[in-house]
Amino acid sequence: MKPNESRAIFHLQASKVFSASLEGSPAHEYLEEHRGITLETAKSMGLGFVGDSAPNGFEMYKGCLAIPYMRYGPLHSRETPQVSVAQIRFRCVRPGCVKDESGFREKEDHGTHGKLESMAGDTGHIYNTNDLAKYHDEIAVCEGEPDTWTTKQCGIPVIGIQGAGGWKDHFTELFEGYEVVWVLADGDPAGMKFATGVAERISVARIIPMDSGMDVNKSVLKYGEEYLLKKVGR
Hints:
By secondary structure, the protein is of the alpha/beta class. Helix content is 31%, strand content 21%. It has helices at 3-20, 26-34, 39-44, 95-98, 145-153, 189-199, 216-223, 225-231; strands spanning 48-49, 64-72, 83-92, 99-100, 103-104, 116-118, 138-143, 158-161, 180-185, 205-209. Strands 1-2-3-6 form a four-stranded antiparallel β-sheet, with helices on both faces. A four-stranded parallel β-sheet has the order 8-7-9-10, with helices on both faces. The protein has a two-stranded antiparallel ribbon with strand order 4-5. The protein starts with a helix and ends with a helix. The mean pLDDT is 91.
């Protein structure tokens, strides 16, 4: 078995455990109450929770939301399901870090550990490439996973990029053939810098900025799904 194949199977098996632990967990509460993401959307994107049943090798991520980067297509084994997992990222949702006596914090306190972590050896991938594998005339590009969940929940085909510096040159060719690529930009200088960098590489890109200080998730939570749908002409 090739190393990449073995790693993908390892990720897939772990993701199934995490997904089965989501409902009723701190991650479920975080997604629903703080991000406005329904359990249906979370399950469709394979989101999970790293609880006490975490497989060996994932102990350091206990208390985190598991974010698998799912892929269509079989691995090199007939027994392998059609969905594989290229990597898993982990978002801390431990109550002591994300909540205080009044509820979820706007400014979290993660102490000595990071808010969002990738496993050692993982490189940046496009998030939610499943939407690239389906035929659409239009697709949106977001910065980060939460905005991707929100856009997906609004019924808009979407992919996510890991941070402002996450775009790689070979991503560009994946967007050939689209009529429009909506680049959803955070309402701050860093967000516009990210969006401008993407738009410079994709000829049919259109930058859609959020209001000042807002991102896609915050915008939809405040104004509703119609706000985002109107932004992209739906």
